[in-house]
């Protein structure tokens, strides 16, 4: 495969060999799309400029705007083309042995190996498809969900092609899809793309642990997300602060800023929020904002840090009250979903909106997955005799159940997350304890 640079910098033939106008335009479009991939891989979407993309493609800015309305339009064309190419490559790997009966494990290996092969072959394209797309305003998370759904579909098809009475529930297909994609994200971020080939079989081994003959009852289908609720303006401090302690005033102002950021991000994501809007929503002065934060980006990350710290503390406190690992996971997950359901707006910010702020937010989310993976890692000490679980499983589970929760949040069901607790409990326990015991513990939550 030609490099991005060589593909983007081919000069158009001239004279008698010149292309027809429409063919020339199509080639220029392709070169600009490849240039967008290269520039975004180097600088990130937030820093990518039309001038940089045009220079990379060796075309003029006028040519760029003759073919694309703006930077986002070019990015979206590159994203759609990348998705189509990735789908074709994964399907090719999955169907390498058509008609040959496979176990569920072998079928899932085909899915994960296909994904790994596509990423290894074109890592810059994979980064644009999975990571950088989140920075494209409020539409970014929805585009990422399209990839999740495609992987869910492949998992379902893989299981259906095998003989036997077992299946993998829709909830667990989402957990697997999100877990696998996050492991891919992590390898892209850490520059360890080629190691995905070795990790693929471990991910398939983890995924097959959700094979069951008696899945938990399905939930009603998720709907499209509703419009965000109107932002509520926090009450201002009394004029002159009435001799309130400085520490109280500072803390209250900071909380109001973070609340405003959280609420405003639900409408247009990071790109659509401005400091003046935050100042107006928080009912503070411009100076007060900059007394607390250097810029909008810093405020976004601080809002996430506070939301995650509160969520982790609630889950940790509930889990720490149990001496038995299974009970600790059950209670920790129950406290987790209850905490999220109590404040749907903050839940949406922490799982969806913050990711629109760019690579730093994605790195923070990765740290969150690792923190919850630490809670799950005690499962390795509680394995039944003779059972082994791949080391990557705890991280994949953590990311996978976060992905399932995200699906509910963006569908406007954050306030109903307690209904999802049994599915999350099963997803956390099944790889370590096996299907029967995990299902038994999950059914206890359904009966509660």
List the SSEs and their pairings.
Layout: H1 4-8, H2 21-43, H3 50-57, H4 61-67, H5 71-94, H6 104-121, H7 123-130, H8 140-160, H9 170-190, H10 196-208, H11 246-268, H12 275-282, H13 286-292, H14 296-320, H15 325-341, H16 344-351, H17 359-376, H18 393-410, H19 421-433, H20 435-447
Helix pairs in contact: 2-3, 2-5, 2-7, 5-6, 5-7, 6-7, 6-8, 6-10, 7-9, 8-9, 9-10, 9-18, 11-12, 11-14, 11-16, 14-15, 14-16, 14-17, 15-19, 16-18, 17-18, 18-19, 19-20
Structure description:
The protein has 448 residues and is mostly helical. The protein has 20 helices and no strands. The termini are far apart.
Poorly predicted ranges: 1-7, 231-235
Assign the structural class, choosing from mainly alpha, mainly beta, alpha/beta, alpha+beta, or little secondary structure: mainly alpha
**Portion in beta strands:** under 5%
Spatial shape: flat
Computed CA radius of gyration, to the nearest angstrom:
24 Å
Q: Tell me the span between the first and last alpha carbons.
A: 56 Å
Number of helices: 20
Mean of all residue-level pLDDT scores = 87
Number of strands: 0
